[in-house]
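Q: I'm building a small set of examples for a reading group on sequence design. Run inverse folding on the following structure and report the sequence directly after it, with nothing in between.
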């Protein structure tokens, strides 16, 4: 049974003008934090199978990770010593900062800057009032927009378009990196501009033989071509027959966020081939050739 955990000022310990939560907080449901509390600091991690929402005037900071099956939203900023991950969108009135990566199934939006020690990835768009900086790559299903600069230290950028003051990729890489996006505004001061290559986060059945359902991170045509060129010819027909886009994307995403295996199995039975040989582990129950 899911629950809504509501946190008010009395749930925190006050020290030096900040509110502290000294235990790890994990909820099967949603977490809602009262408005106008300033920065609330979680010593460890904070996670919810549904959403994490802080009211206007309240920011979220965690010593470890922040993760939600659905969205994460704060009236002020969001900071994590580890990663920030949401099945849906991430939104902050001020900045978003993570020691590791930032990942959202939908969009990422910050009134100030967005900064990650590793990569930044969003199924939809990424938008910041100030700059965007990632230790590794920046990927979006839609556009990447910043009021100031866009920087990726190690790898390149993938999106439909980018817009910023200046754009630079691959500072810490010996090889020239690419800005695979339409440059709507700004100067590319480091990196090679290439045709747009936005990521796709659609759900598919049987992208790999040992996986029931997965999200795509590149055009599905790439996987189809790989199967045709590299897999045993005897396997190719069944692989391509079962590799199909999930029809009810919302229901599947909801089941995945809740780790509801029974719901996924029921949806698979409804959408996949009647004679699908999936046995809970593989589509090749009699043994895979390659």
């Amino acid at each position: 049974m899911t629950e809504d955990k509501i946190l008010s000022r009395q749930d925190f310990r006050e020290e030096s003008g900040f509110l502290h939560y000294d235990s790890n907080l994990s909820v099967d449901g949603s977490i809602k934090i009262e408005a106008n509390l300033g920065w609330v600091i979680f010593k460890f991690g904070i996670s919810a199978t549904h959403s994490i929402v802080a009211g206007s005037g309240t920011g979220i900071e965690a010593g470890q990770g922040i993760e939600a099956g659905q969205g994460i939203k704060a009236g002020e900023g969001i900071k994590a010593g580890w990663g920030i991950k949401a099945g849906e969108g991430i939104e902050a009135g001020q900045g978003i900062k993570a020691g590791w990566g930032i990942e959202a199934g939908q969009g990422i939006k910050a009134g100030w800057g967005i900064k990650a020690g590793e990569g930044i990835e969003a199924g939809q768009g990424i938008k910041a009032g100030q700059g965007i900086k990632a230790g590794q790559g920046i990927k979006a299903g839609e556009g990447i927009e910043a009021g100031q600069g866009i920087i990726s230290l190690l790898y390149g950028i993938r999106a439909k378009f980018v817009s910023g003051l200046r754009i630079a990729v691959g500072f810490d890489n010996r090889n020239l990196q690419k800005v695979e996006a339409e440059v709507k505004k700004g100067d590319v001061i480091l990196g090679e501009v290439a045709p747009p290559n936005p990521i796709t986060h659609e759900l598919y059945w049987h992208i790999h033989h040992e996986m029931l359902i997965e999200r795509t991170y590149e055009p599905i045509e790439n996987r189809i071509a790989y199967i045709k060129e590299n897999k045993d010819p005897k396997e190719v027909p069944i692989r391509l027959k079962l590799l199909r886009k999930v029809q009810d994307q919302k229901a599947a995403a909801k089941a995945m966020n809740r780790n509801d295996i029974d719901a996924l199995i029921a949806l698979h039975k409804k959408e996949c081939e009647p004679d699908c040989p999936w046995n809970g582990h593989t589509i090749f129950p009699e043994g895979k050739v390659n």
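The longest strand covers residues 157-169.
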